[in-house]
Amino acid sequence: MSTTETLNGALLIGGDRVAATAGGSQEHIFPATGRPNGTVALAGAEDIELAVRAGREAQREWISYSADRRRDLLIDLADAVHEHTAELSRLNVHDYGVPISFAINTVVLERFLRHYAGYVDKPHGLSTPVSESPDLNLVEREPYGVVGVIAPWNGAMVVAGSCVAPALAAGNAVLFKPSALAPFAALRFGELCLAAGLPPGLVNVVPARAEGGEALVRHPGVRKIHFTGGGATARKILAAAAENLIPVVAELGGKSANIVFADADLDYAARLSAYQGPIVQSGQSCACASRVLVHESVYDAFVEKFVATVEQAAVGDPFDPAVVFGPVISEPDATRILSVIDEAVATGAGELLTGGKRIGGALGAGYYLEPTVFGEVDNGSPLARTETFGPVVSIMRFRDEAEAVRLANDSPYGLNAFIQTTNLVRAHRVARRLEAGSIWINQVSDISPQGPYGGYKQSGFGRTGGLDGLYEFLQVKNIRIGMS
Q1: Any bridge partners for residue 294, and if so which?
Q2: Catalytic (active site) residue 286
Q3: I want to staple 360 with a disulfide (CB 3.0 to 4.6 A). Which of 93, 151, 364, 434 is the partner?
Q4: In DSSP terms, which residues pair with 3 in a beta bridge?
Q5: Are 411 and 257 in contact (CB under 8 A)?
């Protein structure tokens, strides 16, 4: 396990790292070893107040710059991220034990920065005619001012790209709150913002517990919130933000279906499904396809290939580039996931095909669980309906296309859906019938800055990516000039 990086857990407010904070501090535990990894400062209400003030001042300076200058500074930031990709990736491993083979998702951050830098100097407004009047009617888009971006522990770099980048391109300042469970890469990103020449305070990075998070969403100086996380926390944020009528965008959980039709390339489908299911981030992702629906004619053949792929996944030190499967985030989460597995076995929710236990031996001190697969799962069971957020996948049969669509849509969630088929007509037809914000056909969930991403139903509302993602951080103003 690497210990070469300096893990600075101090807040970033204005241009300063702040170690002594109103919210206290906590030890950061490295999930791969179960041992302390450093100390993280936690923002309290007083720190949030300071960050909002710094954000206001910086936003006024930022918006006074010419569009060309703001564009070029965001490109400079993208260059800095590129230069420090290896460092940010390793910090991401320290954050939550994600294998370095996947931690290259810091590349996503660079892509989003370059994409949205290109929007800074593009017009966002238009002029529309007014009925029976020669008046000039202008529709313009303006920044909110200071916005709050709340990231989950499993995706701070992705959220920095998909949310912080468009917020800056739109002309806002950002209070960026990563999870205290995974703060290091986000804090280093904040330092790179300063090094690239962004005004101090334009990006403040404030890990916090519930107290600091509540102060952020209740602060009247924070004009919009973008939250990525779970539904239970989203409900609390919505209630708190409602006191000041602060708008909220929420990208929430998922229990995504992956439909494997009989004509699919089963070898490819098995590899894709294993990666998208229990392997990537150890199943700890809202994007995971944790329900695999397989046509009955190829069910047995697919299951054999899928289980073999899962069992061959390289498990171990997340700093080893050959490793693809790492630990879960914490001891309480390991216990919770194992209880889900035990309940599923006890209630007969499905047939346990592989996994189901904690990994011991040299990895026993960390929070490693076996990737776990259940077959013949009842889609009405808690195993199939509740987001496990761990390396657990349910496989079930379907008879025809109509049943596949019905099973896929029979979920309170609607973030992603996946289709494995070589029939292009079927792919288009089924995609339009699925109740999900993103449909991936013969493709993993490769989130890009060009494509809007977000959920249906209890998977949230609002979008990141594309022009829709930019507009989330701009408010509309109508200006009418009398011409008669």
Answers
A1: 260, 397
A2: yes
A3: 364
A4: none
A5: yes
What secondary structure does DSSP assign to 163-192, as a single string? Answer: IIHHHHHTT-EEEEE-BTTS-HHHHHHHHH
| pLDDT at site 2 | 46
Beta bridge partners of 27: 39
Which amino acid would we find at residue 377?
Answer: V
Residue 238's contacts (CB-CB under 8 Å, 6 or more residues apart) are 248, 250
Task: Give the type of residue at 75.
Answer: I
User: Two tokens at 196?
Assistant: 């690239």
DSSP 46-70: HHHHHHHHHHHHHHHHHHHS-HHHH
Q: What average pLDDT does range 470-474 have in this prediction?
A: 97
Catalytic residue, candidates 163, 286, 288, 472: 286
Is 193 annotated in the active site? no
- In angstroms, rounded to a whole number, what is the distance separating the alpha carbons of residues 279 and 337? 15
Contact 252, 230 (CB under 8 A): yes
Averaged pLDDT of the chain? 96
Catalytic residue among 110, 193, 251, 305: 251
Q: What is the pLDDT of residues 339-353, one digit of tens each?
A: 999 999 999 999 999
Q: What is the pLDDT of residue 125?
A: 85
Residue 122 designated active-site: no
Condensed to tens digits (0 to 9), the pLDDT of residues 317-366 reads 999 999 999 999 999 999 999 999 999 999 999 999 999 999 999 999 99
pLDDT at 3 over 60: no
If one counts every other C-beta atom within 10 angstroms of the C-beta of residue 364, the result is 10
pLDDT at 5: 65
Over residues 369-380, the pLDDT tens digits come to 999 999 999 999
- Residues whose CB falls within 8 Å of the CB of residue 365, separated by 6 or more in sequence, listed in order: 33, 34, 35
- Cα(101)–Cα(316) distance, rounded to whole angstroms? 12
Which of 233, 315, 243 lies closest to 279 in space, CA to CA? 315
* % pLDDT > 90, the chain: 94
pLDDT at 4: 52
Q: Is the pTM of this model over 0.85?
A: yes
Task: Report the residue count for the chain.
Answer: 484
Sign of the dihedral defined by the CA atoms of residues 408, 414, 418, 422, in that order: positive
Rounded to an integer, what distance in angstroms lies between the CA atom of residue 40 and that of residue 27?
6
Q: Does residue 415 contact residue 287 with C-beta atoms inside 8 Å?
A: yes
110, 370, 387, 472: which is the annotated catalytic residue? 387
